[in-house]
From TrEMBL:
CDD domains the UniProt entry points to: SGNH_hydrolase
Domain SGNH hydrolase-type esterase: 43-227
Protein name as catalogued: SGNH hydrolase-type esterase domain-containing protein
Top-level taxon in the UniProt lineage: Eukaryota
UniProt organism field: Aphanomyces astaci (Crayfish plague agent)
Amino acid sequence: MIGLYVAVRTFIAWLWLRFCRWCAQPLRLVLKSNEYYHKIVIIGDGFAAGFGDWITMASSGGLSEYIAHEISKEDKIRHKWQVINRGIVDTDSSQWHPTSSTKYFQSVMSTPQLRDADVVLVVVGSMDARRKTPSISPDQTLRNIQAICDALRKKGKRVCVGSLCHSDVVTECDGHRSINQALVDFCASTATDAFPVKITPDLSTPVVRRSDAKAFDGFHFNAKAYQQIARDSMMVLTPLLTAVEWSTWKKQLDGVKYDAALYD
């Protein structure tokens, strides 16, 4: 009976989330990026979508809503940033692979209102251990996430990859822990690249492991947890976003011509 309750509520919650996201972030109203207006797109599973959050018609839900709020409070960030939620509940890393038949990746990156995003947050992989047919091994999860990140970087995106969530199931948690360490190593290996991958948001932070941080399904997070994760993410996002802003300012300064005689 509990399983039926969770299944029905999950279905209704996902419909409501999609409807509210459509109301709050209709693609037809998303402006083209320019030197003063930038976009962050969040792709991935239910954690990317903000499943479990308390969502209203004026909210895009989850991390997109709370990260946007944190950005608006940060004095170091001067430009306008829109955080766009494109997460899909109950998807795994194989479905977001750039060559997957689902075409989730292509649908986001080929949409004119989304493909000019400066930053992409990849939050996927936490559902993989729950897949049975076909099963997805931790090694395959890691390869899928790396492929997603590499494809985005080839498109000139600055990429942040989220860690996999903490799970109360011991076998799942052990697998997630090993993948998270591998993701840290992967990010470290890109440190000298033009577009290094950053590790954030952290879905395994201790504060979100408690029962009072969980949604009704006992797996995804509630509003309190998403808010905390968004706040923590700003330690990585703030320097990343200011770097994007500085690059646009630098282009403008490089185009300025001046009379050297005035400075003699």
